[in-house]
Design goal:
The chain is of the alpha/beta class. The protein has two domains: 2-214 and 403-459, 4-Layer Sandwich (Metallo-beta-lactamase, Chain A), CATH 3.60.15.10; 219-401, Rossmann fold, CATH 3.40.50.10890. The protein has helices at residues 37-40, 64-67, 70-75, 86-107, 118-127, 222-235, 249-262, 276-287, 294-301, 318-323, 345-352, 371-376, 407-415, 431-445, and strands at 2-5, 17-20, 25-28, 56-58, 81-84, 128-130, 137-138, 143-149, 157-167, 173-181, 204-208, 239-243, 271-274, 312-314, 331-335, 359-362, 381-384, 387-390, 394-397, 423-427, 449-450, 456-459. The termini are close together. The mean pLDDT is 92.
Length: 461
C-alpha cells in the first residue's frame, strides 16, 4: 500500500490523500489550497494522478479546503462514488454553489481561475452516497470503511479504512491494516455539536495539527468573553463586526447570542446575519437536529428556537445588506468570510474599521496571507477593496471559539488509540504546530510520529 500526501502536509489547507492498494485507488478529501498566493496557485495545477483511475472518494466534511477541488476532479474524468454523511452532502452543494459565484466574480478580473457551472455541481452531487456514522461500508472484497463523529462541524467525520490482504506461503492468512484519517477534529464541549469520538484500533493514523502548539481559552468562558465584548461595544455606541464562516461558526454564535439575550445578559440590539450562505446553512442545521448534542436537543424540546431571538435579522439580499448602513449603532454584524478574504464583511470593515468606538471580533482561525491574519498581527493599515484603510477599531480574538481541537484535545484523542500504532502522520497544520505536536506525541506517548511533506509517498506495511 502507498499513501500519497497531496495537500494538508506542512500546511492547513488543500487537504487530500491518495491511498493505493493492489487493486483500488481511494481519495480521502479533495480540497482547495487557501491563503498565500503561491498556495492558491496550486489549485490551477493538474492532479498528480489520473482522476479516471480513482475508484472512490471519501469526504471528512464540507469545508472548501476538503471538498473545493471536487469539480476539477469530475471535470478531469472521475466518475466513481463519493461517500459522505447526509449533512456533509447538503453543505457540499451550498459551499460549491457559493464558490461558483465567487469564482465567476473573480474571473472578471483575473485569468486562469477555476470555473465550474451548475451542471458540474449537479454531476458531483449525483455521485454522492449518503453514509451515516458507524455503518461499515464495503468498497470491495478487501477494503471497507466506517465514519465516526469528528465534532468539528455538523456531520463531520473521522474515517477508518480497513484493508485486508492475504499473506503467508499459501496466501490463506488474512492480515488487516487499519488507517485512520482524523479530518478536522472538534473543540470539545462546543455548542450544538456532539463531542468527537475516540477510536481504539489503528495501525496508522493521520491527525490534524492546526492548533498543535497551543491551548484555547477555557471554553466555559467563551460566552462570558462575547458578553463582555458586546457590552463594551454597546457602551461606546459602536459597531461590533464578527467575520464568521457561514458553516458552523455562525450557528455557534447564534446559539450563544440566543442564550445571552434570552437570559438578559446583554441588551437587545440589532443583530444582522449578513450572509446568504450562512442563512441557507442554518436552515440545514434546523433539518438535522438529530445530529445535535443532548443539551441542544433538550433546549429545542423545551420550545426554545435556538437560532432566533429578539433583534435578530437575516439580510440575504444585497439591498437588505446595504440597508444595514442606515441602522444607527449600537449594532452587531455577523458576515462572511471568516478570514476577511471576501464576502460582505469586507464592506463593513471598510466602513467601520477606521473608528475607535467599533470592535472587530475574530472568532475563526486566520491563515497566513489573509486579510484577517494581517489585522490579527497588528497591522495599522490594510488594503480592502482596493482602498487603504486605517485600523483604529479595537481588535479582539477568541481562540476558544475554534472548531478545531487544541493541543490538549489532540493529544487526548491520539492517546485513545491502543498500542501498537505503527506511525502517526501529523498533517493539516503549519510547520511549527505540526512539528511541536509530532515531538510531543513521540515524547509523551512513545509513538513514532512524523510531519510529511506535500507529494511525499510512504509505503504502509
Amino acid at each position: 500500500m502507498r499513501l500519497h500526501f497531496l495537500g494538508g502536509a506542512g500546511i492547513v489547507t488543500g487537504n487530500s490523500y491518495l491511498l493505493e492498494t493492489d487493486k483500488e485507488k481511494i481519495l480521502i478529501d479533495c480540497g482547495l489550497f487557501q491563503g498565500l498566493p503561491e498556495l492558491e496557485a496550486k489549485n490551477r495545477e493538474p492532479f498528480p494522478f489520473d482522476p479516471k483511475e480513482i475508484d472512490f472518494v471519501l469526504i471528512t466534511h464540507s469545508h472548501l479546503d476538503h471538498i473545493g477541488r471536487l469539480p476539477l476532479l469530475v471535470e478531469d474524468g472521475f466518475s466513481g462514488k463519493i461517500f459522505a454523511t447526509p449533512p456533509t452532502m447538503e453543505f457540499a452543494r451550498l459551499m460549491l454553489e457559493d464558490t461558483q459565484k465567487v469564482m465567476y466574480e473573480k474571473a472578471r478580473k483575473e485569468e486562469g481561475l477555476i470555473i465550474f457551472g451548475e451542471n458540474e455541481i449537479q454531476e458531483i452531487m449525483d455521485l454522492f452516497v449518503p453514509t451515516p456514522y458507524h455503518q461499515k461500508i464495503n468498497l470491495s472484497e478487501n477494503v471497507s470503511f466506517e465514519f465516526f463523529e469528528a465534532g468539528h462541524i455538523l456531520g463531520s467525520a473521522i474515517i477508518r479504512l480497513t484493508i485486508r490482504r492475504a499473506q503467508g506461503k499459501n496466501k490463506k492468512e488474512i492480515k488487516e491494516t487499519k488507517i485512520v484519517f482524523s479530518g478536522d477534529l472538534g473543540n470539545t464541549r462546543m455548542p450544538i455539536l456532539r463531542p468527537l469520538e475516540k477510536i481504539e484500533e489503528a495501525n496508522y493514523v493521520l491527525v490534524e495539527s492546526t492548533y498543535g502548539d497551543r491551548l484555547h481559552e477555557d471554553k466555559s468562558k467563551t460566552k462570558d468573553i462575547v458578553e463582555d465584548v458586546v457590552e463594551e461595544t454597546i457602551a461606546k455606541n459602536g459597531v461590533l463586526m464578527i467575520p464568521s464562516f457561514a458553516l458552523e461558526r455562525t450557528q455557534q454564535l447564534l446559539y450563544q447570542l440566543n442564550e445571552l439575550v434570552e437570559h438578559k445578559r446583554i441588551p437587545v440590539v440589532p443583530v444582522f446575519i449578513d450572509s446568504p450562505l450562512a442563512i441557507k446553512v442554518t436552515a440545514v442545521y434546523e433539518k438535522y437536529r438529530d445530529y445535535f448534542n443532548q443539551e441542544a436537543r433538550q433546549l429545542i424540546k423545551s420550545g426554545d428556537d435556538i437560532f432566533k431571538f429578539p433583534g435578530l435579522k437575516m439580510t440575504p439580499s444585497i439591498k437588505e445588506s446595504k440597508q444595514i448602513n442606515d441602522v444607527l449603532p449600537p449594532k452587531i454584524i455577523i458576515a462572511g468570510s471568516g478570514m476577511s478574504q471576501g464576502g460582505r464583511i469586507m464592506h463593513h470593515e471598510l466602513r467601520y474599521l477606521p473608528e475607535a468606538r467599533n470592535t472587530l471580533l475574530l472568532v475563526s482561525y486566520q491563515a497566513q496571507g489573509t486579510l484577517g491574519r494581517q489585522i490579527l498581527d497588528g497591522a495599522k493599515e490594510v488594503k480592502i477593496l482596493d482602498q487603504q484603510v486605517a485600523v483604529q477599531a479595537k481588535i479582539t480574538h477568541i481562540s476558544g471559539y475554534s472548531a478545531h481541537a487544541d493541543q490538549a484535545g489532540l493529544m487526548d484523542w491520539v492517546a485513545g488509540f491502543q498500542k501498537p500504532v505503527k506511525k502517526i502522520f501529523v498533517v493539516q497544520g503549519e510547520e511549527k504546530p505540526a512539528n511541536v505536536l509530532a515531538q510531543k506525541i513521540k515524547d509523551e506517548l512513545g509513538i513514532s510520529a512524523e510531519v510529511p511533506k506535500i507529494n511525499q509517498v510512504v509505503e504502509l506495511v
